[in-house]
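Lecture notes, continued. The same structure-token format from the folding unit now serves as the input rather than the output. Read the line below as a description of shape only.
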């Protein structure tokens, strides 16, 4: 679809982009990533001829873009930049409709398109079409930037650090939005980012650049598993490359259980569950020794029997881990018994914490650099 053949961009003797070869396929999202000054923006802007290459050939669908009228070319390539570039004196609808108008679409057609695009990114057209950019939040403005690039339905979209000015929440939302839109629209998207997590999340293939050259091109999986050299390894972060043998110790990933004393009533039990948003309680004696577990269904089933205490309905027979077990033991037991969590005790059967399915997922995710919460200790809820 987009083909770079031995393309360079020089400023005097300096190579901003140095002899790159790259084939971007139809319908894929390619992330250009690398340190500042590595030539990402230059590479991107050569695609819509905002920058002319000094050497080599760029073609789109087999046609050399050098032979095309640059204005016409740009109308068929959506372009999203970091600071949206919405025109402040124009309404949102007019901003979105810029290219459709240039393409001389009928007014009714482009107005309908504006509404459709606003709805697509969750902005009510009735409310937003006549507003001005300054009346929108940064995240909303950036959404408009994205749908403006989609307005005339171009087959190619270029994005240059489109979300990097946003707060982390808007940023995540917009990333999700782009993934969702792409599943529907199947555009060919080239986007520049310096955030490897963003690239891994959104891109089908990642193109890692350094000093104007391509260091590695591959799927996120390929790059994470087989970084081409130390530069890539460092760039993607060593912490992502965790292997099973480097799994953390069981004791380091224990989460804090919600516990209750055996002599409490069922209403108290339900109350503690509700308060702590859990569906089971670990029953411990006054020495924090593990006695049993009670799930919300057990309480439900016996709730009418007012004289019953938690110790009367608790399960005493369930899998338990000792603190000398390993994380692999935990994974094995949790899968074997199909339980949501396992209590972990010491040699005196004192409760140290829980390993949950969710915390195991966290550990796995942590091998890929995602943050993980670590709690420890025991506190009794009732
Ligand atoms: N007009 C220019 N004149 C001279 N050098 C430039 C010009 N534009 C970009 N460069 C240089 O080219 C290199 C690549 O720039 P750019 O593609 O913007 O990097 P990135 O987007 O990866 O941060 C940088 O070293 C930059 O300083
Ligand atoms: Mg740049």
């Amino acid at each position: 679809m987009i083909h770079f053949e031995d393309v360079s961009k020089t400023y005097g003797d300096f190579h901003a982009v140095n002899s790159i070869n790259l084939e971007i396929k139809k319908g894929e999202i390619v992330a250009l990533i690398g340190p500042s000054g590595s030539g990402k923006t230059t590479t991107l802007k050569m695609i819509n001829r905002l920058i002319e290459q000094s050497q080599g050939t760029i073609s789109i669908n087999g046609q050399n873009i050098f032979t095309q009228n640059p204005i016409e070319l740009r109308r068929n390539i959506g372009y999203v930049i970091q600071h949206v570039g919405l025109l402040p004196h124009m309404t949102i609808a007019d901003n979105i409709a810029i290219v459709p108008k240039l393409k001389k679409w009928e007014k009714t057609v482009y107005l309908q398109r504006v509404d459709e695009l606003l709805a697509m990114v969750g902005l009510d057209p009735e409310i937003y079409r006549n507003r001005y950019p300054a009346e929108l939040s940064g995240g909303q403005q950036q959404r408009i930037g994205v749908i403006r690039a989609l307005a005339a339905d171009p087959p190619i979209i270029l994005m240059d650090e489109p979300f990097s000015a946003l707060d982390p929440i808007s940023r995540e939302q917009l990333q999700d939005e782009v993934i969702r839109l792409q599943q529907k629209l199947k555009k060919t998207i080239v986007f520049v980012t310096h955030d490897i997590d963003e690239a891994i999340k959104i891109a089908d293939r990642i193109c890692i650049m350094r000093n104007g050259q391509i260091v590695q091109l591959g799927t996120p999986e390929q790059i994470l598993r087989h970084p081409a050299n130390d530069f890539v390894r460092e760039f993607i972060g060593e912490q992502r490359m965790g292997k099973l043998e480097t799994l953390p110790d069981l004791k380091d990933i224990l989460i804090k259980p919600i516990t209750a004393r055996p002599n409490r009533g069922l209403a108290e039990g339900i109350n503690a569950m509700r308060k702590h948003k859990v569906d089971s309680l670990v029953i411990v004696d006054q020495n924090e020794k593990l006695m049993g577990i009670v799930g919300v269904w057990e309480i439900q089933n016996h709730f009418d029997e007012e004289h019953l205490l938690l110790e009367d309905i608790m399960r005493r027979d369930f899998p338990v881990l000792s603190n000398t077990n390993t994380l692999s033991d935990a994974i094995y037991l949790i899968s074997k018994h199909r339980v949501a969590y396992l209590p972990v005790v010491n040699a005196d059967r004192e409760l140290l914490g829980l390993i949950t399915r969710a915390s195991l997922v966290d550990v796995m995710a942590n091998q890929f650099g995602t943050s993980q919460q670590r709690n420890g200790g025991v506190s009794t809820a009732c």
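Point for the exam: DSSP finds 16 helices and 17 strands in the chain.
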